[in-house]
Amino acid sequence: MAVFSRLIPAATSAYLLQTLLALIFVPQQNEKYYDLGGAAGFLSTAFISLYYPALKSKFFDRNPTPLPSILSFAPRQLLVSAALGIWSIRLGTFLAERAIKAGGDSRFDEIKKNPRKFTYFWLAQATWVFLVGLPVYMVNVLPPLLHPALGLRDYAAVGLFAGSFFFEVVADRQKGAWRRAKNAKQHDERFITRGLWSISRHPNYVGEVGIWTGIWALAAGSIRTSHYPIGTLALTAASPLFTYFLLRKVSGVPPLERAGDKKFGGDLKWEEYKRTVPIFWPWGSTN
């Protein structure tokens, strides 16, 4: 369908930016800006998904008409784009600042020494940017007049996004405050067990999954219309599902749990923490 062809500029922009960043940082073996590059990818791809028709008209077709006002877009387009933007800026700057302060990202200690493998990670990030942001891009490429009005489900979705975003931010700030207090020798705890970290061993990741579930649910109001073929909504559910899979099974929880076992193995408090606090969902299993 024509509406899917409108995603091509967004997909192209996602891969072009990460390719450019790889050309800059792979030769330097510099991973400090990897997460910031991901955030920039989400922001630029969302912008292209909204403005590509106007940009094409202005710069390729030589149409002197000015770019459309932000207020000319449908409320749903503005909300999903704002949600993506808020999340991208907050998380990207948070992770980049942490990597810069630490002098790097330990995940890439060996990877960055292999140019081919390091390049692959930049391109994999482009895939992440496109797949996870897909509900937003699908909403943005649909002309403003074709979007249905917001309803109760949409406001509930906004609430889920906002609550999950708050949950993630609080978890990160609690851990940051705990670490600063430890550095100031105000306590001698080896690992954090306070606040949200007392109900989940990875509460920041729980918030992350909730954020993308909320964005997908908000986008659903437009994606499930007749302007998209049946099954499109299920396709875009890959956004929160892929987020959960990556964090719970691949690059989030597993390496952190292994690192914790290696560092704190044999510590009775660590074993008690793992036995009593759920590994992910606050109401879930400890394993």
UniProtKB/TrEMBL annotation:
Protein name, as recorded: Steroid 5-alpha reductase C-terminal domain-containing protein
The organism's place on the tree of life at top rank: Eukaryota
Record's keyword annotation contains Transmembrane helix: yes
Chain segments annotated as transmembrane: 6-26, 33-54, 118-138, 150-171
Organism per entry: Mycena pura
Pfam families with a match to the protein in the record: DUF1295
tRNA-binding keyword on record: no
GO cellular component: membrane
Record's keyword terms, sorted: Membrane, Transmembrane, Transmembrane helix
InterPro entries, per the entry: UstE-like
